[in-house]
């Protein structure tokens, strides 16, 4: 099976491209490299020194003897996108290629517009390209658990059955996202759902939780294959940030009282979930939604876990409750369903002390690359 990984130079995409390539899928990477450009603009860097995409791809090909073609360009350039699809002819497209930071999308008008234009138009262009050129191709699109927000009822997988005035229907689950970035995912969801209905496209929306960890069997094989690990206040995500903060002796930055609860998964499960989705494609016209996470934690619980793991490594870890820069509920009900991927055979890697140790050790190894001025959040929602 041929798989095109859009966003294959990014955190989730790079790990996924190598994993699928190792499993024997014929993989190609498409990426505009715009994330490297945004990093430069914001003066931020990944903790880990990532090699230029051509070098990391070359190293993978050298080590494994597998070819990993590279298409550098923007999916909003329709002639580039169509030429790529016509040349590579994928059976599945895994779409990670979006601006994915909530704080980035809340910097100002320009960044909100950039986020929604890049993400919503990119996915719309992709839907047209699939419809016109590869109508049988399965689109596996990365959505987010943040599309649902924090409703006071259980969160289902994409749809909910409702009885109203004596009638019953199964409808898209209500969406209450918490940033212009998360909203871009909701807009994508509606566009994909509609395209499945009118054109018979087959699609799976993976509503992923917050990803943690950095090592996979493939990216750990050589220094040139190392994956990115963001720790700054814009692109760094909660648990990865806490581990890096602990390693360099910075107090953990818990926003508000830390009771806000989110879903999480190990990057090794991200790659496996994508494999499960492409191995059993959606039917023609089906818009399938999987909630892609393995556990849920409050931010406060995560900080306490990192503090405990740090102490066993001799690190003195302080926890700081700082003013929450976001507008989000802190004390709320949260219970989300994730049975679809488990039913397909996902065997989760649960967050363990050994994982925290390995993340902490990784962070200690590269601590000289940390720019401490980039740790505290600088973007306010208000
Ligand atoms: P990332 O920023 O590391 O990677 C995204 C990649 O997409 C980058 O290499 C970027 O250059 C590329 N890209 C962006 N816009 C593009 C365009 N228009 N054309 C071509 N390439 C483009 O992000 P990530 O953490 O790997 O996230 C990947 C996807 O997974 C995103 O859609 C994100 O919303 C989703 N997701 C991520 C997380 C997480 O915790 N990292 C959690 C849930 C969902
Ligand atoms: N948080 C802290 N301290 C920090 C960083 C974050 O308390 O230093 C809190 C935030 O206030 C929030 C929670 O941790 O309540 C999660 O924040 P995050 O930055 O880890 O994650 P988020 O902004 O939601 O975005 C990340 C990815 C995004 C993905 C999303 C999945 O960047 O691409 O869509 O996780 S989810 O959260 O399920 O929507």
Outline:
The chain is of the alpha/beta class. The chain is built from 12 helices and 14 strands. Strands 3-2-1-4-5-8-12 form a 7-stranded parallel β-sheet, with helices on both faces. Strands 9-11-13 form a 3-stranded mixed β-sheet. It has a two-stranded antiparallel ribbon with strand order 6-7.
CATH architectural designation of the domain at 2-214 and 224-230 and 266-294 and 333-349: 3-Layer(aba) Sandwich
Radius of gyration: 20 Å
Compute the separation of the termini in Å: 47 Å
CATH superfamily of the domain at 2-214 and 224-230 and 266-294 and 333-349: NAD(P)-binding Rossmann-like Domain
Work out the number of β strands: 14
**Biggest sheet: strands, sense, closure?**
7 strands, parallel
> How much helicity do the residues have?
25-40%
Strand content: 15-25%
Mean pLDDT: 97
How many helices? The count is 12
CATH classification class of the domain at 2-214 and 224-230 and 266-294 and 333-349? Alpha Beta
User: Residue ranges: pLDDT <50 for 5 or more in a row?
Assistant: none
Quickly give the structural class: alpha/beta
The distinct bound ligands, ions and cofactors come out as: nicotinamide-adenine-dinucleotide, sulfoquinovose-uridine-C1,5'-diphosphate
What is the name of the CATH topology of the domain at 2-214 and 224-230 and 266-294 and 333-349? Rossmann fold
- Spell the H/E element sequence: EHEHHEHEHHEEEHEEHEEHEEHEHH
Strand order of the largest sheet: 3-2-1-4-5-8-12
Query: Judging from the principal axes of the Cα atoms, what is the shape?
Result: globular
